[in-house]
Specification:
With about 325 residues, the protein is of the alpha/beta class. It is built from 10 helices and 13 strands. The chain has one domain: 3-Layer(aba) Sandwich (Rossmann fold), CATH 3.40.50.
Length: about 325
């Protein structure tokens, strides 16, 4: 069986970040020549594959830098993004929209200028409106407006998808587009300003001062979550098998209420914590679940990690991270 990635020179923008670093590692294991394009090394520094991942310092907000550096690659996988948790996304919708559109535009122009033939654009489930049918099919991605708590990010990701479609149409570039649903796992952002649901809950559970944690919304809203190892596998399969500028949902079929997710995290943590639901804050989408049929048919992709196992891995990573930070602080005293 042939290996699509064997010997290919691959650039991962945002390669030092949460998902990007996992993708870089998986590409190394497929014998690709991997470059992480980012402002700093990030998680690549601590990777056991760090000697096989070349760091390419690049400011994606600078068009000249992009054109200069994004060249002579067989594949570009554009993961770099400006995004935070729900509060951050609601507070800075214009900044998020503009920042992501600028990066996408600069990367796209460099790809065209330097005649790169294979590119992956990372979209998001945030493109979908709040009243969309669930499970949600890819064809619903441009109906109405994105859900209001992710308005700037959702529109920016729609713009990225359009960019990909037009590159495919005009320049005959092989374009893969993925819409991951709620990625989580080791190396996620755990600070409360930027954390998404799972990372934020883990942070709260282990840092409560009074044995209580606040969760926004009613807790009745449902979500599906995709472990980071599944996310990067789906990205690679889409680039390999479905680079026709049509979006593919990457999601799990394991749907769970937020209140049950919180209870699961508390149980795995082994801590005694009471949940307080703050209904002054919005639930966001009432249900969020991908229709995963296209990914199964075109890629043979199905989530391999169950939520319970993924949460155990994520909590274990968090505890090791906190221990490391504590030890470092001790040395500085």
């Amino acid at each position: 069986m042939s290996n699509f990635w064997e010997g290919k020179k691959v650039l991962v923008t945002g390669g030092g970040g949460f998902i990007g670093s996992h993708l870089c590692e998986e590409l190394v294991q497929k014998n690709a020549k991997v470059f992480s394009g980012d402002l700093k090394e990030g998680f690549i520094k601590e990777s056991k594959y760090r000697k096989k991942i070349k760091f390419l310092k690049i400011n994606l907000f600078n068009l000249k830098e992009c054109i200069k550096n994004i060249k002579n690659f067989d594949v570009v996988m554009h993961l770099a993004a400006l995004v935070g948790g729900i509060n951050y996304n609601m507070k800075y919708p214009a900044d998020i929209f503009l920042g992501n559109v600028i990066m996408t535009s600069n990367v796209a122009q460099a790809i065209v200028k330097n005649k790169i033939k294979n590119v992956l654009f990372t979209s998001s489930a945030c493109v979908y409106p709040s009243d969309v049918n669930v499970p949600t099919k890819e064809e619903d991605g441009f109906k109405g407006e994105p859900e209001k708590t992710n308005l700037g990010y959702g529109w920016a990701k729609r713009a990225a998808e359009i960019t990909g479609k037009l590159l495919y149409k005009q320049y005959k570039i092989n374009v893969a587009i993925v819409r991951p649903y709620n990625a989580y796992g080791p190396r996620d952002k755990f600070d409360m300003e930027n954390a998404h649901v799972i990372a934020a809950i883990i942070n709260k559970v282990f840092n409560t001062k009074d044995g209580k944690i606040e969760v926004w919304g009613t807790g009745e809203q449902t979500r599906t979550f995709l472990y980071v190892k599944d996310v990067v596998r789906g990205m690679m399969l889409t680039m390999e098998k479905y680079a026709i500028a049509e979006p593919v949902n990457l999601g799990s079929d394991e749907e769970i209420k937020i209140k049950d997710l919180v209870k699961m995290i508390i149980k795995i943590s082994g801590r005694d914590v009471k949940i307080i639901f703050n209904t002054n804050f919005p639930d966001g989408y009432k249900r969020r679940k991908a229709d995963t049929q296209l990914a199964l048919e075109k890629l043979g992709f199905k989530a391999e990690w169950c939520l319970k196992d993924g949460l155990k891995e994520t909590i274990d990573y968090y505890l090791k991270l906190m221990k490391k930070i504590a030890e470092h602080s001790k040395k500085l005293r």
